[in-house]
Amino acid sequence: MDNIIIILPIIFPFILAILMATIKFNEVKRNIFVSIGVILNLIFLITIFYMFGEISIHLIKLNEFLDIYLKIDKLSIMFSLLVAILWIFTTFYAMEYMKHEGKEKRFFTFFLATLGVTIGIAFAGNLITLYAFYEFLTLTTFPLVIHTDSKEALKSGKKYLIYSFIGATFVLLGMILLFSITKDITFNAHGILPALTKENRSLYLLSYVSMFLGFGVKAAIVPFHSWLPAAMVAPTPVSALLHAVAVVKSGIFAIIRMSYFIFGAKIIKELHVNIFLSILIVISILLGSFLALHQENLKKRLAYSTISQLGYVLLGVVLLNEDAFVGSLLHLINHALIKIVLFFCVGAIMYTTGKTDISQIRGIGKQMPITMGCFGIAAISLIGIPPTNGFVSKWYLAQGGLTSGEMIFPAILLFSALLTALYLLPVITEAFFKKGEHTIVKEAPMKMLIPIVMITIIVVLLGLFPNILITFIQQIASEVI
Amino acid sequence: MSIIQSFPLVIILVLLITAFMMPLIKNTKIIKGISLVSMTSVMILALINLDFVHKNGEYLYRIGHFNAPYGIEFRIGIIEAMMGLLFTFVALMIIWYSIYSIEKEIKQSKIGLYYLLVNILIGSLLGVVYSNDLFNCFVFIEVGTLASCGTIIVKDKKENIKATLKYLIMSCLGSGLVLMGIAYLYSMTGHLNINYIHAELVKCYLIYPNAVLISIVLFIIGLGVKSAMFPLHNWLPDAHSSAPSSSSAILSSLVLKAFVLLLIKILYGVFGMDILNHFSVLNIVLILGSLGMIMGSVFAIFQKNIKRVIAYSTVAQMGYIFLGIGLGTNLGVSIAIFHIIGHAVTKSALFLLAGAMIEQTGHKSLAQLKGIGREMPLTLGLFSIGALSMIGIPVLPGFISKWHLSLASIAAGDTILIVVILLSSLLNAVYYSPIVINGFFGEENLQGKVYKSKSKPLKELMPVIFLVISMIYVGIASRGIINLISLGLM
Predict the structure, then answer these.
(1) Which of A185, A352, A420, B142 is the most exposed place for a label (fewest CB within 10 A)?
(2) Residues of chain A positioned with their CB less than 8 A from the CB of B415
(3) Which alpha helices (DSSP H) does A182-272 contain, by range?
């Protein structure tokens, strides 16, 4: 119990959430309280990583399977830092944005609790802990999704819950089957399973596929994707953070953990299951892009784009070679940064003008040049034009595709990049190159603008100097493959 | 012989004797006091007894002066002692809850009668659990049946009378079948004591295969009726939903469980694995249990009355227990008994909370209970924890039962059962989550509701809080409890 300190970044947001729910704050005090809270949490994280490095702790061991076990490795450092940093930006953004949504107290309560849960997912050291936090993630994000409490929101929320519970049930099925093979489900690089034999093959296959699809629900793989566009009724900070970072990326994070730390690349290759899964993923990439083309609503367009981009990340995961895996992790980070900027820009337009559709934003580039400028930079990065960060991650993914000997994957990536351009560039041309009505609109308030600009700067910097990140990610990749 | 060995008998006597003091007293406060004190004292006795059994192992306790084949005896093993503690604890919490609110559901003049019935009911259930003599069990069953009918009809409404008649008829049918089963066994072996019957039966079951088979089926169906095995459950939703809330809690968390325990005792104590395997009757229990898990939940989805939802959920949860019994392995039965414990504390809390909502708002239907989370935040909050256990969130007992049942089905070679278990837990989510969601969220739902306007005082919710805490404890301490149960089953 020496390492008990590592539960601090998980527990602390919960304590903040409880305080948030019980104490009455006025607006200023509440903002100070939340921002200090999330910044402190990042400081705790960094301190722990700095002082302890890679450590682990058995929190509660109920029996051989119900063992709440936390373990920090490089992958959890990467994911938790990403989450904690983006959470801070979102907090500042949300302070301003949530003014027009109302019910800020409820929002920030669950917002903080979700931070704790997401860090819990990052720190989970075995499958059951991951599963527990994964279930909690559904429960804490649900009130955020239905924040407006309208009929439509409740309907979308219901959809979200049903999809999530079905996913969790699949995960549970896979986990039970897995547990009947091996009594140990602790994460370990290269996997923990005994070698594949003829007898246990079908059990392995069933277990892997059901867990992949189960976690895939949160990662919005195509037959299970429709909750994600529906969940766009949530306030923009929620859409941005949860549906570009926390929820969908947790799904992918769980798939990475399950694939590389339970099964191991070798066994998955022997199962030949990744070929079939990659077909599903390619469908996700293409279908997401095609559907995005037809969306009038900006947020929905971004949501479908998320489905497609998550496909890139998953493709990198199932190709099972080092380059692809590096590309996948890079794209996980880059997509999170890019998508959050895009969402924030759309949210800024909604906040200042109330406009939500692409046809309404004609000429808005002249009135909100900074916002739309950032949108443009982010869009270019997402398309993957060098020297942006989107290009770097796609480069590695394409390399990975070639390494695995399939020419088709780089071709699909290129084609999808084209589609990405087709659905994002019209937004920019509408905004900058068409004349709109002469209403005078100003930029969004500073609290919203600064996070947008800062994340955009990070996006650009990561495109220009990707080496620090790549070195770190290559270390992770070389450990697991 | 240690004095502690006589505690089970003392427990039953205390309950029965105090029961008959109650009608003599006019002051309801004193009646409630007696009820509380008697239940508290028997709970302490049960606790001491459990500790004793845990240290010294199981024992047989002779009642009267005759030795076993002729006289009646109690058999107190770890499981019996655990159940004694569980029953008295849950009953105590329910009585504690009821003393604040019972006037709102039944007439002042019936209060004495009500607590009399409750004490008799708990006493007879414990009799069923403790006794090692089949005919003695039957007598306790009959006493318990009549007392439980009484706790429903005491409300004196039209629907109660209808529900009680249905319950009474089904129940009498059940006890009739059990009696016939006992008669078959007696005519074959000449004994009523479980150990003696078993010893004789093992020698002679090949001589009378049909008679043995018939008696097993009689017991399964007879006790199946009483413990709401699908499709013999149709009396349960009416009875449990129309009864006063405290009675519903007792009926679904304790009464059903005593009959299931008797079924376990008869199947594994009287007949034993050899005979059961020879006739492969456990498959009946397994299939009916799986059907109940699915169908109970499906029925629950379509209910409009909150208490009927919980009642149908009981049918589904009993299915889990029958599934565990039907697997026919030590692990399966251990989990069945663990589920009895987990479900008893969860379901009693859910019924009491639903009762609190109905009592404060006057509404029963789910449509009218929307937005209740704003008016009664603590009540619905506790309800949510119970619902989460039913849905199967890790660490809570519902999840642990499901997990172990799945593993037990893999071990028993019936992998397909996992699908049934998971499907059923998904269905649980389908009907429990709308109650919670519509209670806490939704613009239309919350319109015109004033925060905490109808909440019950904390004092009156204390017993439910204790039940919820004990539920979480059962989840956290599951390893110890399951080990203890399988030790007791050896």
Answers:
(1) B142
(2) 177
(3) 201-218, 227-230, 236-241, 247-256, 265-271
Report CA-CA distances (Å) from A432 to A89, A370, B208, B218: 26, 12, 93, 82
Chain A nearest C-alpha distance from B479 (Å) = 6
Amino acid sitting at position A28: V
Residues ≥6 apart with Cβ < 8 Å to B477: none
Are residues A355 and A257 part of one domain?
no
Residues 398-457 of B with CB under 8 A from A: 400, 402-403, 406-407, 410-411, 415, 418-419, 422-423, 425-426, 429-430, 433, 437, 440-446
For residues A296 and A437, state if they share a domain. yes
Q: Does the beta carbon of B314 lie under 8 angstroms from any beta carbon of chain A?
A: no
CB-CB: which of B394, B400, B476 is closest to A132? B394
What is the mean predicted confidence (pLDDT) over A156-181?
88
- If asked whether residues A333 and A231 sit together in one domain, one would say no
On whether any CB of chain A is under 8 Å from the CB of B466, the answer is no
Tell me which residue in A66, A169, A179 faces B422 most closely, judged by beta carbons: A169
Q: Which residues contact B102 (CB under 8 A, 6 or more apart)?
A: B111, B114, B244, B246
The mean-pLDDT minimum among B86-90, B101-105, B174-178, B266-270 falls in: B101-105
- Within-domain flag for B245: no
Section B332-358 average pLDDT: 91
Q: Which domain holds residue B332?
A: 281-490
Query: What does the block give as tokens for A280?
Result: 């599903």
How large is the greatest C-alpha to C-alpha distance in chain B, in angstroms?
Answer: 73
A265 & A285 share domain: no
> Could you give the number of structural domains in chain B?
1
Question: Do the beta carbons of residue A172 and residue B391 sit within 8 Å?
Answer: no
Domain annotation covers residue B174: no
Q: How many domains does chain A have?
A: 2
Handedness of CA B132, B133, B135, B140 (dihedral sign): negative
Identify the pLDDT of residue B140.
92
pLDDT in tens, B95-114: 999 888 888 888 888 888 88
Q: Report if residue B348 sits inside a domain.
A: yes
Question: What is the predicted ipTM?
Answer: 0.81
Residues A423 and A452 in one domain: yes
Percent of chain B predicted with pLDDT > 90: 20
pTM exceeding the 0.95 threshold for the entire prediction: no
pLDDT digits (tens, 9 = 90+) for B16-60: 888 888 888 888 888 888 888 999 999 999 999 889 888 888 888
Are residues A277 and A342 both part of a single domain?
Answer: yes
Interface contact A149-B443, CB threshold 8 A: yes
In tens, the pLDDT along A392-441 reads: 888 888 888 888 777 788 888 888 888 888 888 888 888 888 776 666 66
| DSSP characters over B222-267 | HHHHHTT-TTS-TTHHHHHHHS-HHHHHHIIIIIHHHHHHHHHIII
Short-list B415, B422, B412, B404, CA closest to B482: B404
Which chain B residue has the Cα nearest residue A65? Answer: B403
Asked whether residue A351 falls in the same domain as residue A259, the answer is no
Q: Residue A151 and residue B406: Cβ atoms within 8 Å? A: no
* pLDDT value of residue A2: 65
Rounded to whole angstroms, the Cα distance separating A124 from A133 reads 8
pLDDT digit string (tens) for A44-99? 888 888 888 777 777 777 666 677 888 888 888 889 999 999 999 998 888 888 88
CB atoms within 10 A of CB B66: 11
A262 with A279, same domain: the answer is no
Structural domain includes residue B286: yes
- Separation of alpha carbons B67 and A29, rounded Å: 78
- Using the predicted structure, report yes or no on whether residue A220 has a pLDDT greater than 70: yes
Q: Is A335 helix (H, G, I), strand (E, B) or coil?
A: helix
Residue range(s) defining the domain that contains residue A462: 273-481
CB-nearest to B418 from A128, A157, A176 is A176
Give the separation between CA A171 and CA B145, rounded to whole angstroms. 43
